[in-house]
Backbone:
DNA sequence: AATCTTTGCGCAATCGTTTGTGCAAAGATA
DNA sequence: TATCTTTGCACAAACGATTGCGCAAAGATT
């Protein structure tokens, strides 16, 4: 037991050739048996049995590089995220890594640091590694590069951050309806001056969330109060923009922040200004996170189905790889509004 | 520009053979030039120049599988963490991925789900992929398996979660002094009944943190109040143990939680019981996290140098790989106590 | 002019698989 | 018995690089 595991490292790595010598059969036959092609090539059951026995007596493991070199398949996928330190992406990564393992794939992680150039560099590096496919939550403004990759190299599936106009398949949250619901909730609770702090504007998810925000405001006849600020998914952006909002006059009575990092910055600004949530200002945000339940107060938020995002994206990618075709799936999963304590009734 | 990037995917992949035909030189020579061995083999400067030009005119990129097959090196490392969804590990992963990219390595991520068997399976899978080395924050009780890997397969470096008795190199936080400082802080603020909620007891970091806790108590003559509970790094464990502590009599006046997940559970329990932090009970925890500044109140905590942990571990690993020797580094980095608002003066 | 060095590069084996094709032996058919 | 199928496996060429050794031509030495 322990022994065999030791041996699997220490003995010179078993190869097909060695196995061939040991059994007196040809490399070809052994390869066929071990790769499950036995009856396709009519290897006799007796031989099959024999080979299998010897193979695991010797603890044979195929050399993946040699396999890949021949087959052009690595059973490896790339995952590119804007920032693995962001819990939202860490959770998605977690789901994908799990699922991939079950399916016999391993994942190479690439962190783009919210930067389009680093993302591109990362993707190129993945291609050099001959990944079979790539899942990316993009930091880019334009789909062109990734579309090229998808068309002429390996399948690409977008997750969360995507492009509105693209041939690439994606699986994302329904950002529009999420934002609509969140902002409507604020409005239903009596808020009118609802300000919105955005992430990078070129991002489709930002545009959708903005659209949801604006529509909610318009439906309530509040278009004159529509106020979008900010242009980055960062704590700092959230902080600065909230700071400015809190110095404006009249004050907004509620804030809609577009993700968890912006939220953090906004909370910091609010705390600094001595205002209280939700007594003085209400807050709803996009993105879930265990910590948000422990913040003071627990933040009402749009919860995205992180696990499903990950596992569906992976499923699409793997199918695409194994059927060797490009998917055109466009999947929008519904988020849910988690009501917590950061929204107060506003009865002006 | 755009053109060339397209071509790099679309054209049939350039190979040394193709390049040889194009230039009229031999594959050997080209290989030598492109792998920087030109003057070692006395290739004339003129030829070198010519080859380099043609190579990048044709956008040549070596096939990594073929390279690895020959050289037995993949320029790939494995990273095994107990849970990538834990922000602590996500941050470490972020640092490692960054640094690795700079050094020309890519990283394969494996998530052990806090489980020793999954960790082992993950490591085996990494070995099948022929990673050049592995960084692991271990979920195992025993060093045996990883030591075997280190001795007879590829270099292994432990990070954060390590073993006290092991031949493996590690880079960790000085858990003892961190805990000592944290608990001393509580004691200096007048606390006596300081309870401690632990992670898995077999873990060296837990033992060190416990030792720090116990020593701090003893130095203050408080050994009779030493009280360690819990046995898991999970929100649930923190919740349950805190729940129990809060039902005990007399109540502890302060809690020392061993990591961020335990902390969350404890906070939940405290909130549920209607107690306030720090008025009714003080809290200090191990692990940093941006969110902890926004929790109510901001949690006083031991901040570990996550980036350094990651980058130093990687540096050790890479050196080990490139020098082809096993390191025996045992590095302990000092954490710092970040004073926030979760500790009150206790004047009994 | 004969020998020795140095310069500049190529031959061919090798890494460990996969796979199209081929070919004997055994069995079936007539 | 001659021919045709089927059964069961092997040969050898890829995949795309690296590398020990060898060897001709040019230059240096005596």
Residues:
């Amino acid at each position: 037991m322990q022994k065999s595991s030791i041996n699997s490292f220490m003995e010179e790595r078993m190869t097909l050739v060695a196995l061939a010598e040991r059994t007196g059969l040809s490399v070809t036959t052994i390869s066929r048996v071990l790769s499950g092609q036995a009856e396709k090539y009519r290897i006799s059951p007796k031989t099959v049995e024999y080979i299998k026995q010897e193979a695991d007596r010797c603890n044979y493991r195929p050399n993946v590089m040699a396999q890949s070199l021949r087959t052009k398949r690595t059973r490896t996928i790339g995952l590119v995220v804007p920032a693995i330190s962001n819990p939202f992406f860490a959770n998605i990564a977690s789901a994908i890594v799990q699922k991939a393992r079950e399916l016999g794939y391993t994942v190479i992680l690439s962190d783009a640091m919210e930067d389009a150039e680093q993302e591109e560099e990362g993707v190129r590096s993945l291609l050099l590694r001959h990944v079979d496919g790539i899942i990316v939550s993009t930091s880019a403004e334009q789909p062109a590069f990734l579309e090229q990759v998808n068309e002429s190299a390996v399948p690409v599936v977008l997750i969360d951050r995507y492009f509105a106009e693209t041939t690439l398949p994606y699986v994302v949250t329904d950002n529009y309806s999420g934002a609509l619901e969140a902002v409507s909730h604020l409005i239903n609770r009596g808020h009118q001056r609802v300000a919105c702090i955005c992430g990078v504007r070129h991002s489709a998810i930002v545009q959708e969330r903005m659209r949801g925000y604006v529509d909610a405001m318009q439906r309530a006849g509040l278009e004159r109060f529509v106020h979008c600020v900010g242009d980055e998914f960062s704590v700092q952006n959230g902080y600065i923009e909230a700071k400015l909002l809190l110095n404006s006059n009249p004050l907004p009575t509620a804030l809609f922040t577009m993700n968890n990092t912006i939220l953090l910055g906004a909370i910091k600004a609010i705390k600094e200004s001595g205002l209280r949530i939700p007594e003085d200002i209400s807050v709803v945000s996009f993105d879930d996170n265990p910590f948000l339940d422990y913040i003071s107060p627990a933040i009402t938020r749009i919860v995205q189905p992180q696990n499903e995002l990950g596992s569906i994206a992976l499923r699409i990618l793997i199918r695409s790889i194994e059927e060797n075709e490009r998917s055109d799936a466009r999947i929008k999963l519904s988020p849910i509004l988690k009501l917590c304590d950061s929204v107060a009734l506003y009865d002006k």
Remarks:
- Chain A has three domains: 3-70, 75-173+306-333, 175-304.
- Chain A touches chain B through 61 residues (CB under 8 Å).
- The longest strand of chain A covers residues 76-81.
- The two ends of chain A are 73 Å apart (CA to CA).
